[in-house]
Specification:
By secondary structure, the chain is of the alpha+beta class. The chain has 2 helices and 10 strands; from the N terminus they run αββββββββαββ. It has helices spanning 2-25, 126-129; strands at 28-36, 44-50, 62-67, 75-82, 84-93, 102-103, 106-107, 111-113, 131-133, 137-142. Strands 2, 3, 5, 8 and 9 form a 5-stranded antiparallel sheet that branches. β6 and β7 form a beta hairpin. The longest helix is centred in the first third of the chain and has 24 residues, at 2-25.
Length: 143
């Protein structure tokens, strides 16, 4: 009888432990991204969220927009984001064409990356722009 009770106790403890591990793996948080800088009310802000270096600036996980003509809050909120490593690229898309416009001397629209990562020529690297989301997180990006 005591072996039976012990076996049930072991199974119960194992189930509780497995459930706790599963909940930790599936933990979700909100990510708030505040955009700073001198930004006109023309066009929109476009945020692209990435979760992989191999897909950085190629295939975003999520794209969000703020219409600057109607919303001057300049804050993005992403709810129910799984815990993990992410990087963000933001552009001030003045002409609403969905891409960063380039001129002979480089970009003609403002842009920025998470961690305010910079690169002398070209975009910031994923490793410089990446950050961890484990709990609710707030970051600032300067354009």
């Amino acid at each position: 009888m005591s072996r039976f009770i012990l076996a049930i106790l072991v199974v119960f403890i194992s189930e509780v432990n497995l459930k706790a591990q599963t909940e930790e793996k599936q933990k979700q948080a909100s990510l708030t991204v505040k955009i700073e800088g001198n930004i006109s009310s023309t066009g929109k802000l476009q945020l692209e969220l990435y979760n992989s270096e191999s897909q950085w600036l190629e295939k975003e996980v999520k794209t969000l927009h703020i219409d600057l003509a109607t919303d001057n809050n300049r804050t993005f909120v992403i709810e129910d984001l799984p815990a993990g490593t992410y990087a963000i690229a933001v552009i001030h898309d003045k002409n609403n064409n969905g891409e960063l416009d380039m001129g002979m001397m480089g970009p003609t629209e403002k842009y920025g990356f998470s961690n305010n990562a910079k690169n002398m020529f070209g975009p910031a690297s994923y490793s410089d722009a990446s950050f961890q989301v484990a709990d609710d997180t707030v970051i600032n990006i300067k354009l």
